[in-house]
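Lecture notes, continued. The same structure-token format from the folding unit now serves as the input rather than the output. Read the line below as a description of shape only.
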């Protein structure tokens, strides 16, 4: 039988949970946020911002005024994209806190179970499950985002 409270096993369990949560979040983003409609709206916004920046840089007041007429439309598109992202964030926060609660119930009693070769600011030379989870989550979510081309 595997003892999940043994430090090496706990290390791998927390790592696995962080990767699984990252994968599920990336899948949900890809499925519900980064749709063709989102991509189209995002490219319209980016193009407008680029043109607006260039027109201001060149001090082309006529072009700036023409682009400023579209500013309300662009803000509306940005608002739609932000709302779509916010909805998913709210929905995924609940399972995240549940999983994090379960991790803390199981692994906070281990204390600082990971001994580091270096001493880091805020963390020191030892690490508890919380810091280990954050490092795994940030590191691998960024790698997985690049692999799956999300965000």
């Amino acid at each position: 039988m595997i003892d999940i409270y043994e430090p090496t096993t706990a290390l791998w369990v927390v790592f696995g949970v962080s990767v699984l949560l990252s994968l599920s979040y990336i899948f949900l983003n890809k499925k519900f946020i980064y749709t063709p409609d989102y991509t189209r709206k995002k490219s319209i916004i980016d193009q407008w911002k680029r043109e607006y920046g260039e027109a201001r840089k060149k001090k082309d007041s006529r072009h700036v005024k023409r682009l400023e007429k579209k500013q309300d439309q662009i803000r509306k598109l940005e608002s739609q994209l932000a709302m779509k992202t916010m909805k998913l964030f709210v929905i995924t926060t609940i399972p995240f806190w549940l999983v994090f609660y379960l991790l803390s119930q199981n692994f906070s009693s281990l204390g600082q179970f990971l001994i580091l070769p270096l001493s880091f600011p805020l963390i020191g030379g030892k690490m508890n499950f919380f810091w280990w989870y954050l490092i795994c989550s940030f590191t691998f979510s960024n790698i997985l985002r690049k692999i799956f081309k999300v965000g």
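Point for the exam: The longest helix spans residues 71-107.
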